[in-house]
What does this fold into?
Amino acid sequence: MPKSRSRTLHAAPGMHDLLPAETALWERIERSARALAEQRGYRLVVTPLLEPTELFARGVGDTTDVVEKEMYTFEDKGGRSLSLRPEATASAVRAYFDGGLHQAPQPVRLHYWGPMFRYDRPQAGRYRQFFQFGVEAIGEAAPEVDVETIELSRTWLERCGLTGVSLQLNSIGDEVCRPRYREALRDHFRPHIETMCADCRRRFDTNPLRLLDCRKSSCEPYQQGAPRSIDFLCEPCAGHHQAVREELDALDIPFQDNPRLVRGLDYYTRTTFEFWAADLEGAQNALGGGGRYDGLAEVLGYNATPAVGFAMGVDRVVLAMQRQGVKLAPRPTRVWLIPAAEGAAVEAHKLAGELRQAGWEVGVVFGAVSLKAGMRQAQKSGAQCVLIVGPAELESATVTVRDMTAGSQRQVARAAVLDEVDRVLGFPEEDDAPNPTWTKAGAIAETDG
Ligand code: AMP
It folds into this structure.
């Protein structure tokens, strides 16, 4: 075999696998994210991972780092420029219009969970493929909806068991008041711009708000004393900001006014917010953020439509959970079956199927050399109830059901097994949720799970 072929292969830089030790936790926080979103009427939207490059160039802004430096862009076989999505807000707005949701009752509330791609320098908390949980409320300008999204994201972080998270809040105005603010920023930075980094020199012309965002030591000192956007807000923007602040106060949601919070993407207007974790360092401390983007729809060529949303970085939330020692309690499979006779495996398959249908998670110990070895294996796996199908049981169409906690067992008729397991363990827990049952072709019945 040629040498190049024998080299072992690994995931691409900045991309990683999620193995079962992690997926249990991921699945749990995903479930809670979706449940919180659904409770507030944010329904699932799934958009393509690949979009026309222009969607991001126009929507996110072609002077942003995300579009300028970090996109995975290629030409497909038809000569179209496509990009892996670096974020999902522009896609959600496109889908809202493409799918005719602008004709539905407003606002339309959407949520998503999925991978995003940015070609950035990989480090802890910064990856080239990372996951975001986000929501978008499209078609409503009221400040109460800003607060709804803030409350939702904050509640999710709480449900993830995180503490020491601060909510940073700002308003960057709109196209009426922002031009004056941009000029004030240019006036402030002009005397220093030649000593600032190349990115900042470019931002000075294209997007001076981003001068407040730079984390380089050559630039940060000049941010001190820079004009604050909230001092430049026009009356409607100031009223909106005041309403958001008052409502957060009334709901006992603490926040810090942060005049430097401009967010990296172009489409934000008025409210911007981020959640910062005390346990993550430097630029990686933002667990997520969001804000209002009343101008985005128009930039994409649609009718002007107010909207607000957030995107939380799932990888970073998990990292913060690990740093804070938040763990998911292990959830062992509680019911185990041991086929311990010639021909008992088929019976075990059938019995396990019936128990699973009734809502139990069931493991089967296949291949044990003896009943004793099988029992040991089941015990190690956390069994609370063990079902034994040995020669005597096969012969008499019975099953031995052992209560591992009490250390007692009963041999019951095959037909009475389910009742006996219920007696030993109580009813299936929420996590032993039954599979959905098909009621008719194409329809899934809702279950309590
Ligand atoms: P943004 O809208 O760019 O502020 O992204 C929202 C959130 O996504 C950030 O606060 C991070 O938690 C997360 N995020 C953004 N970029 C990355 C990345 N390269 N790797 C991991 N998480 C990221």
